[in-house]
Amino acid sequence: MEVKYEGSKLILPEITCNCGMHHAKPDMDIYIGKGIIAQSVDFIAQRDFGKNVVVVTDQTLYQIAAKNVESRLQAAGYQVTLCCLEREMPLIPDERALGEILLAVDNDTDFLIAVGSGSITDVTRYVAHRTQKPFVCIGTAPSMDGYTSVIAPLTLGNLKVNKPAGYPKVLICDLEIMADAPYKMLIAGFGDVLGKHIAKADWLLGNIINDEPVCPDCIALTSQAVQKCVDNIEEIKNRTEQGIQSLIEGLILAGLTILIIGNTRPVASNEHGIAHYWEMMKLLKGEEPPSHGISVGVATVYAVAFFEYFLQQDPSAFNIECAQAACISKAERTAIIKEKYGEKIGAAILRDNPSDFLDWEEQYRRFQKITTNMDRIRNELAFLPTTRQVKDMFVRLGAPYLAGDIDINDELLLNGLIYAKDYRSRYTVFKSANELGVLQDIINRVIHSIK
Ligand SMILES: [Zn+2]
Ligand SMILES: [Zn+2]
After folding, report:
1. CATH number of the domain to which 312 belongs
2. Which of 18, 202, 276, 423 has the fewest beta carbons closer than 10 A?
3. DSSP 182-218
4. Using one digit for the tens of pLDDT, what is the confidence trace for 149-205?
5. Which residues surround ligand 1, an ion (CB under 5 A)?
6. Ligand 1: distance of its center to the CA of 113 in Å?
7. Same domain assignment for residues 146 and 40
């Protein structure tokens, strides 16, 4: 699956596998290239959205990119309403931001343009969806895989809410603008891509243990995305055109799998669960959480170490009493989740994942399945890098890789590693370890080994 272009337009990957899952073809024009912001109006005009547009940005990105787009639109006869989300602090995608955009949109608005990265795209995505208007995204940083997503992670009060929304019909990534993004956004993008290793491993594991369907083409896309970034660490660090292009291509290829199979299974598993746990707990305490991709990158280091210890186990040593001791009642599980996630988030998790409680019969089935399939598991997951290799990548990139580096204390680290598996019913190696009764033991080893 080579990435191909027609000019600066990315040719969407052709999905031909017969995995049995439905594969959608995204209706999306993606442009990646140096200096292409100058052609943004031509790209947009090809879609005939109309001439009345709301441009959403913030005060910094207005100077960097949105002002340029605004004047080009005006020169081409568009009526532009500017919605500049001015903030002292980093923008939070919350009810206030949504309200400001909503008030900039009226009946005559034909479409919206988000000029920004994660948060600006997400708030625009949600308002466009709710007002049933198309939107365009002019990405300003290769910081996350959400440009092609259909979920808007938003904040209400200090709770995280994931709302269904739409994807941009046109996505424009100017490599010159992206190369000038703050370095921590590049690190975040790298972390978000690297996490796909864990998503892939957990998905294959779900297939082995629970016959969960997998899509080989989606796995090929995310594998290619990771490889692009891993092969270009020096280039990313030096912000060369090749480095920035491989990073944004990796993020877009991975993100496209969400549109192709309609859920985030190919791109997010327990590394995202851990990152979300840290983020939610920080928000509950009124503290600023680390950015998404940076958390995912750090969580990936711990998850890789977890896999490493898990795969080293000798199945003949698996002990049925240990597994039984890990089998708790529904009432106990409910109490733990509410305690560790807080009453409100805990209740939402329990409501959204009703099938996640295992009785002993099902746990025993999984215990047997893992025990008798360890060789196959080791073979299929042999692609995983070692902890040392992943740490080296972060060091070469000059990126944080310890929880403490990103202001996650020991308690948050430990709780994230133990309880992220309960965040959703999606199968992960942390669930496998819990079903075998070895979760705590492996976590202790992971925490001691990563310093
Ligand atoms: Zn992510
Ligand atoms: Zn498939």
Report:
1. 1.20.1090
2. 18
3. -HHHHHHHHHHHHTHHHHHHHHHHHHHHH-----HHH
4. 999 999 887 677 889 999 999 999 999 999 999 999 999 999 999 999 999 999 999
5. 192
6. 22
7. yes
